[in-house]
Amino acid sequence: MNPIVSAIISSIIDSILESAMTPAPMAPPSAPPGVVRPALQNGPLAVMSPPSNGYAQFGSETLRLSASLQIRDTQNRIVMPMAMQGSVPVLYKLDEYGTVQRVWVLTQEEAEVADQLIKQKKSAPQK
User: Fold this and answer.
1) pTM of the model
2) HEC string for 7-76
């Protein structure tokens, strides 16, 4: 047998065996049921439409986006504003100028839990 053909076949077999022994990539970790990311325990809670020209619709309000805007997805990764495709439930934070500085995209479960936490804080007696 030709040594070049033998080397090619050996290389192919080695790569197949190596890929079979490599574990499959795992899905990103998700929070346990009923757990909200710590940053999300303060409101306001709204449904955000995709940003356009430096503004975004948060519920019934149109708010200006900060130059230092950070949008975090459901896995807490930073995403670019133009990556937003549809309306999503979010919690957001305004800066001192009234522009949106931080946005956290919520899963449906997080939105429900965050809504309950916000309602509890509003109804709790002030000290």
Assistant:
1) 0.64
2) HHHHHHHHHHHHHHHCCCCCCCCCCCCCCCCHHHHCCCEEEECCCECCEEEECCEEEEEEEEEEEECCCC
